[in-house]
Amino acid sequence: MKEVEDMHECLLCKKDMKVSSNVFGNSCLKNIYLFLDLKMPKKINIREKTLYNNIMKLTDNKNINKYQQMWLTDRYLTYQYLNKIPYGNYNIIKNQVNYDIKNIQQTNKDEIPKSAKTISLNQAYGLYKKVRKFQEGIYKISKGNFTDKDSIKTMITSISFIFNLSRNKKQYEKNTFKKMQFVFWQTVIELGEKYAEFPISADFLRHSLLQAPQNLVITEGKVIKEITEDKYFQENINNIIKKYGKNCNEFTFDSKKDKSFPMSFNDKDLYFSIHSADLYIKGNKISDKWNLEIKLHDKYDYSQPKNITKYYNDTSNVAKSLLSSTLYNFASLSVRSGVIKEYDIDIFISIHGFEEK
Questions:
Q1: Where are the chain's structural domains?
Q2: pLDDT tens, 312-334?
Q3: Parallel, antiparallel, or unpaired: how do β-strands 250-254 and 343-354 relate?
Q4: Structure letter (DSSP) for residue 192
Q5: What is the distance of C-alpha 286 from the center of its chain?
Q6: Where are the beta strands (DSSP E) in 195-238?
Q7: Residues 18/11, Cβ–Cβ less than 8 Å
Q8: CB atoms within 10 A of CB 44
């Protein structure tokens, strides 16, 4: 750490202050006073010294030199910024910072408090700003006031930094961004149910956010109903019967052996929630109608690329553009960071009296 008189970078934002004997730039001093809810002096030349005096009073410190005053202010601000971050656990770091605050009189000239080696004021301030930006973005998204598909895409991409863990080397940063990812997906779930009418996708995503999600076995309910009523599903089953049920009374079908009937859905909720399912069918014909025992097996993951352009360009309901390629890519990153967990889904469907068309 350079001596105070030699510093030219603002201690808070690290911007070059050219020639200055101060530690903080003037605009940063204004932000600090506002952040701490302190009355700022009108005279510019006494603002920094007044800030030191205020923090000395707040921490009950007296008779400390200029270098110690600077580090007291640095550590106090660091603690306050960390204290405003609701994601992650900073108790250990805050205890370290608090220890240095209480023992600031033992800080010798050119000595750096131990907690500053763990987290600098600039790092704490940067993290605090990112959290504020994230909270503002989540607030806007949660309101669901979308005018067009570009507005929601802009909102979502504005908080995309929470998924870039590779740029955040510190473990406390990674933990914070993982917590923020969790909050983001909770918001997506709420929107999926409230605005986009994606209850199945929302349920599957909610399940993936559990600490240790169990595999799902579905034999009844809305998932079965939506699948059996889906136009593309019905057409696919009919085409399979035409090929495998021709001139016979029973057949079996395995999509792993015959990939000419890829599983697809017309319903957007099904399309997004069941990514690339394997299809198994056992059919028996009775009186020219088919009794079908169907199994769909899917792995809930985000490893396979999907062509979802036709849904993202849907202008009839902008909220339905939420689960676009942008979100799909975010989900892939959340799988890697362990926020979204993968699990298997087995869906069993019995159809009696299916008529070949």
A1: 4-127, 215-309+338-354
A2: 444 444 445 454 567 778 888 89
A3: unpaired
A4: H
A5: 51
A6: 216-218
A7: no
A8: 11
